[in-house]
Structures are given as structure tokens and as C-alpha cells.
């Protein structure tokens, strides 16, 4: 084994997020009906599926923005949700610092400049001193190509720039994994390209990512695993070459056909 | 007595004799305003938080408070606190009674304004604050409250000006503030027109700049400029490092 060069993404590496039989109901409507999933270090998992199928709910359960109804979620081998018991207080805050989140609507803090959006979590979450925090923040803004926009308020930035600041904010906390909830769905094609480029670079650097997306091109080119979720269940799961080229389920085929016709701008690749 | 002062028609008040008393009365008005407003902000914030609390009894208490004190005349509240409470053994001096009345009355209004501000901060902001690992207290202090403040500022500054004018009602319990001093001068000179014009002008001179100050603060905050020393330091350092970094590639 030693003479084989290490693959870009090491699928044998340890499981960082593990989900078992996860269920979530809103009132009487069961949105997740028993989802099990292992996400390994360095893996990029794309989650596809129709709107309302449960993909965003699954993602939001992973850092407990949504509290599941039943099942187990483990992060780094520690149960954060098990048998209806939820991580609380310090444990919950710790989890949120380990698993970063990027939202569809960016959710930057609008009263603060770009650099402060990145700095404040470092100072108040990581207890970094101000000087270090500012240096770190500028480094991560530079990393997403926005060093010169550091002192702008979010309202002065384009959607793509705001989303890149949001990625910098999440990255600066040095998370174990990043969750992306339809990160490009609110963006025009040019901004989408900017954001996907940053995400590709992250995947090449070995960042563990779970991406809920409609970007089939991104899912095909970047992810190690594609999940297709429908009606609260994982209906198909595997390498993109298999799931996207030769889907077994009729529902998956139907979805892929619909997306390729009317769906979002596929990137040129 | 009247000396070289204007002494024709209704204008014949020896203002120089009253300057010291007037100054003391203005000071008393300012003191009532500050004490009443600070109290009102504290009550307003607490009641607003209760109004948004996850459990119903807390919401009900806050709701009842707001509705009662918003819908009584301020004078009635002043009399209740000063005269009414005294009959059941709670004897308050004029300043305490006055400040409490103002705080209770304007607290009810401010709670509505603050509630609107807190509710105006979107759910996404709360989620983002959680997602970057802020504790609930930090999330409130760093993300929710600053944004709610921006939303609540116009209404709050209107209430502050209204409260300053409302202190004039404390004359009915002998509050020794500006309106009371005006009445004293009138009873000595019988020059109601002249005295109340001057008293009105002094109120205007206090309220008008206050409104403008609030407007300037609004603009300042809207432009994202820092108020806290910590934000100021962070931005200065960021600007410094930014120019330093920008200069480097050109130099090398």
C-alpha cells in the first residue's frame, strides 16, 4: 500500500460525522424518515433532490439548527444527539464551532464590516486576541479573494462576494467540516462561478464538505459521494459517476432529467 | 424692581432676578429626563424580552403591563405614584415618585418599540450567530441587540423628546422643574404670556437639538461606523494591515 500515492481524498480516513436512522417531524409531517449516513474526513458529499424532500433539514440537523425527532448523530465519535437527548450549553456551542455552516441567504451580520464578520467569532468564540483575530480574518478574506473588501459593509458587496465572506467566516474557525445549504441558489451565474471556484479549491485542500445543491456540474466534478434524497429518505447514494450517469431509481432519473432541462446554469467544465 | 427692562404691554418680567431659579429648574428637568429615560429603557427592554419569551405566562405579564400603563394618562400615573401610594404607606419623595412615573409610563411605550426592533432581526441572523459558535448571550449582545437598536432608534428618540416634555406634568406634584418655575414666576408677576413664551422657548431649545443628535446617531450607525472602542480598534488595525499588505506586492 505504501507505494500508492495518497489519493486526493482519503476515503479510508475516519468518520467525522455519523448519522443513524435520523427522523425529523414538523408537527405531523415527517420530513426525514430514517436517514443513515457516514461522512469521512476530506470527503465532499453532495446532497441532491427535489425541493421539500428533506435535504436542507438533514443538513440543518447536522449542527442542530434543527433538533431531530429520533435517531443518532455523532461528530468525531461524540454523540450530539441520541435517544432524544440533545447536546446542550457548552457542548452545543463547541459542536457549532467544529461544524461550520454556509447559508443560502449568506446571513452575514449586516451591521458589521466584512472583516468584523470574520473577526468577532474568533474573538468571542475562540478567545483569540484582537490583533491575532484581525490578522487571521484578513488572511481568510484574502483566501476567498476579498482582502480589499475587508472594510466594506455587506450591503456594499455583491451576492457572490457576500457568500465568499460567509465562507471565510466559517473557514476562519478551522472547522472539522463545512455544511453548505444551497450556497449558490440566491446568486446570478457569475457570482455562482466565483463561489463554486472557492468551494472547489477547498475540496482540493481536503476540507470535509456536505453540500446541498442543485449544481449538478459541481456535484459531478467535485464530490466523492452523491446522495439523492426524496420524500425523507436517501433513495440513491454513491460516487457521482454512478449516481449521476447511471441512476437506478426512476425518481432519480426523473429528477436529473428535470434539472438538466430547466435547472440552474451548469458550469462550463 | 423692573429697572431698565422692557416695561410695556404684557412684557415686564425681571428675568435677571429669576435666572438662578430658572437654571436650577432646567437642571431639575434634565435630571428627571435622565432618571426617567434610563428607567424606561431598562423596563422597556425587560418587558420586550418577556413579550418574546418562549413561555406564555411571561408574555401575558408583559402584555398586561404594556396595555395598562400605555393607556392611562401620564398625570394619572403621577398622582397614583405620589399621592395614591402614600395612602397605603409607600411615601416617596417628589423626585423618586416623578422618575418612577416617567419610567413606568415610557417603559410601556419603549417596550413596544424595542419588541418591534427585536422582531425585525431575521431568523437567519440568529442561526448565523449560533452557527459561528456564539453562546446565546453573545449572540444577543453582538448580533441581535445592535441590529435591533438600529431599528428601534427613531422611535426611541421620539420617546426621549416626548419624555422631556412630559416632565412638565410633574409640576402638579411640585416637581421644581421648568414648568413649575414658570408657574411660580407667573404667580409673582401675572405675566403669563411672556413667561410661558420663555418657558416654551427653553423647552424647544432643549428638545430640538436632542432630535437632531438622535438623527446624527442614526446616520452614524447606518454608515456602519463604530461606537465601541473595541470595534474602533479592530477597524483601525484592519485598515492598517490592509494598506500594508496592499503595498507589499508593489514593493517586491
Q: State the low-pLDDT regions of chain B, or none.
A: none
Shape of chain B: flat
**Kindly state the mean pLDDT of chain A as a whole number?**
87
- H/E series of chain A, N to C? EEEHEEEHEHHHEHEHEEHH
Q: Which fold does the CATH topology of chain B refer to?
A: MetI-like fold
Fourth CATH level, the homologous superfamily of chain A: P-loop containing nucleotide triphosphate hydrolases
Helix content of chain A: 25-40%
Write down the CATH class of chain A.
Alpha Beta
Largest sheet of chain A: 6 strands, mixed
Fraction of residues in helix of chain B: over 70%
The rounded distance between the terminal residues' Cα atoms of chain A is 32 Å
CATH topology of chain A: Rossmann fold
Distance between the termini of chain B: 84 Å
What is the string of helix and strand elements of chain B? HHHHHHHHH
The CATH architecture classification of chain B is Orthogonal Bundle
Q: How much of the polypeptide of chain A forms β-strand, as a percent range?
A: 25-35%
Oligomer: heterodimer
Count of DSSP-assigned helices of chain A: 9
Mean pLDDT of chain B: 90
What is the count of β-strands of chain A? 11
Overview of the structural elements:
The complex is a heterodimer of chains A (269) and B (252). Chain A has 269 residues and is an alpha/beta fold. Helices cover 37% and strands 25% of the residues of chain A. Chain A has one domain: Rossmann fold (3-Layer(aba) Sandwich). Chain A has nine helices and eleven strands. A six-stranded mixed β-sheet of chain A has the order 7-8-9-3-10-11, sandwiched between helices. In chain A, strands 2-1-4-5-6 form a five-stranded antiparallel β-sheet. Chain B has one domain (16-251): MetI-like fold. The longest helix of chain B has 37 residues, at 15-51. In chain B, 33% of the residues are buried. Chain A binds chain B through residues 63, 65, 93-94, 96-97, 100-101, 103, 105, 107-113, 115-116, 119-121, 124-125, 130-131, 133-135, 137-138, 142, 147-148, 150-151, 153, 169-170, 173, and chain B through 124-125, 127-135, 138, 142-143, 146-147, 150, 221, 224, 230-231, 233-235, 237-239, 241-242, 245-246.
Amino acid at each position: 500500500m505504501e507505494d500508492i500515492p495518497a489519493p486526493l481524498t482519503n476515503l479510508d480516513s475516519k468518520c467525522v460525522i455519523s448519522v443513524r436512522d435520523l427522523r425529523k417531524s414538523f408537527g405531523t409531517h415527517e420530513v426525514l424518515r430514517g436517514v443513515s449516513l457516514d461522512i469521512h474526513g476530506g470527503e465532499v458529499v453532495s446532497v441532491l433532490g427535489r425541493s421539500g424532500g428533506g435535504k436542507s433539514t438533514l443538513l440543518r440537523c447536522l449542527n442542530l439548527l434543527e433538533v431531530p425527532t429520533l435517531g443518532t448523530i455523532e461528530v468525531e465519535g461524540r454523540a450530539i444527539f441520541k435517544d432524544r437527548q440533545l447536546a446542550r450549553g457548552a457542548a452545543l456551542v463547541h459542536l457549532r464551532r467544529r461544524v461550520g455552516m454556509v447559508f443560502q441567504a449568506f446571513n452575514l451580520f449586516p451591521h458589521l464590516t466584512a472583516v468584523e464578520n470574520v473577526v468577532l467569532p474568533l474573538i468571542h468564540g475562540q478567545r483569540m486576541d484582537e490583533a491575532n483575530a484581525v490578522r487571521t480574518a484578513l488572511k481568510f478574506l484574502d483566501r476567498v479573494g476579498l482582502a480589499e473588501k475587508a472594510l466594506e459593509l455587506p450591503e456594499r458587496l455583491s451576492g457572490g462576494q457576500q457568500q465568499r465572506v460567509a465562507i471565510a467566516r466559517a473557514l476562519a474557525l478551522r472547522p472539522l467540516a463545512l455544511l453548505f445549504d444551497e450556497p449558490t441558489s440566491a446568486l446570478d451565474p457569475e457570482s455562482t462561478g466565483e463561489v463554486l471556484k472557492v468551494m472547489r479549491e477547498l475540496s482540493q485542500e481536503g476540507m470535509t464538505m456536505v453540500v446541498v445543491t442543485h449544481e449538478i456540474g459541481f456535484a459531478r466534478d467535485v464530490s466523492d459521494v452523491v446522495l439523492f434524497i426524496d420524500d425523507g429518505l436517501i433513495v440513491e447514494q454513491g460516487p457521482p459517476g454512478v449516481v449521476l450517469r447511471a441512476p437506478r431509481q426512476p425518481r432519480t432519473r426523473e429528477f436529473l432529467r428535470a434539472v438538466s432541462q430547466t435547472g440552474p446554469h451548469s458550469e462550463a467544465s | 424692581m423692573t429697572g431698565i427692562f422692557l416695561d410695556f404691554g404684557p412684557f415686564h418680567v425681571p428675568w435677571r432676578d429669576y435666572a438662578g431659579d430658572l437654571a436650577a429648574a432646567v437642571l431639575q428637568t434634565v435630571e428627571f429626563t435622565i432618571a426617567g429615560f434610563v428607567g424606561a429603557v431598562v423596563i422597556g427592554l425587560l418587558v420586550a424580552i418577556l413579550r418574546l419569551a418562549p413561555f406564555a405566562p411571561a408574555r401575558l405579564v408583559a402584555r398586561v403591563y404594556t396595555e395598562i400603563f400605555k393607556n392611562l394618562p401620564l398625570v394619572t400615573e403621577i398622582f397614583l405614584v405620589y399621592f395614591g401610594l402614600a395612602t397605603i404607606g409607600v411615601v416617596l419623595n417628589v423626585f423618586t415618585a416623578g422618575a418612577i412615573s416617567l419610567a413606568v409610563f415610557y417603559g410601556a411605550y419603549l417596550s413596544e418599540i424595542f419588541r418591534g426592533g427585536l422582531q425585525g432581526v431575521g431568523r437567519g441572523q440568529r442561526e448565523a450567530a449560533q452557527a459561528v459558535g456564539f453562546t446565546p448571550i453573545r449572540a444577543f449582545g453582538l448580533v441581535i441587540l445592535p441590529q435591533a437598536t438600529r431599528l428601534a432608534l427613531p422611535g426611541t428618540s421620539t420617546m426621549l423628546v416626548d419624555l422631556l416634555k412630559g416632565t412638565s406634568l410633574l409640576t402638579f406634584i411640585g416637581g421644581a422643574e421648568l414648568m413649575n418655575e414658570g408657574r411660580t414666576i407667573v404667580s409673582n408677576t401675572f405675566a403669563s404670556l411672556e413667561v410661558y413664551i420663555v418657558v416654551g422657548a427653553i423647552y424647544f431649545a432643549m428638545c430640538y437639538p436632542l432630535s437632531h443628535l438622535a438623527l446624527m446617531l442614526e446616520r452614524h450607525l447606518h454608515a456602519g461606523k463604530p461606537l465601541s472602542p473595541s470595534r474602533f480598534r479592530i477597524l483601525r488595525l484592519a485598515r492598517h494591515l490592509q494598506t500594508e499588505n496592499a503595498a507589499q506586492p508593489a514593493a517586491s
